[in-house]
Design brief:
The protein is an alpha+beta fold. It has 2 domains: 1-17 and 102-146, no CATH class; 21-101. The chain is 55% helix and 27% strand. It has helices at residues 19-56, 64-100, 124-128, and strands at residues 4-16, 106-119, 130-135, 138-143. It is elongated, with a radius of gyration of 25 Å.
């Protein structure tokens, strides 16, 4: 009978703030913000087209069903725009925070997954607490029990 087990564990990915990292992250966030802005404009345009189609049918302004359709479309457009604007605002806040970070500071950037062997007598908490520290894409340190 075996006394070990292979388990999946989370690995915290930390980066060391450098000018290069700040520039890369700023570029990515700026691009994502621009994409969200374009999506907002696309949603507005699609909503306007849908309303125009209903209005082209002529009786739209006197037909209660058409008015309800227009109102529903406008509500959907406003809701989607609000969601996209909220995401964009979060990106802008992240951009602001990136600019405030100090050089050489360690920042958690995400999580990876890996496997490890657990044996009888191992400290499971220590086995599950692993970090990988990266500087400009290069692993600088691995912390924790492998």
């Amino acid at each position: 009978m075996t006394s070990s087990l292979t388990v999946k564990r989370p690995i915290v990915l930390k980066v060391i703030v450098t000018p290069r990292w700040q520039e890369e992250v700023t570029t990515q966030l700026t691009a994502q913000s621009g994409q969200l802005e374009k999506q907002i404009q696309d949603v507005e345009l699609q909503g306007q087209r849908a309303v125009s189609e209903i209005q082209k049918q002529g009786v739209a302004m006197t037909n209660p069903q058409a008015l309800q359709q227009i109102e529903a479309i406008q509500n959907q457009v406003n809701q989607r725009k609000s969601e996209l604007q909220q995401k964009r605002n979060q990106l802008l806040q992240q951009l602001e925070q990136i600019g405030k970070l100090e050089m050489e500071q360690e920042v958690a950037q995400g999580q990876l997954e890996g496997f490890c062997d657990v044996n009888i007598g191992d400290n499971l908490v220590k086995k599950l607490q692993v970090e990988v520290v990266v500087r400009d894409g290069v692993v600088e340190e691995i912390r924790g029990e492998l």
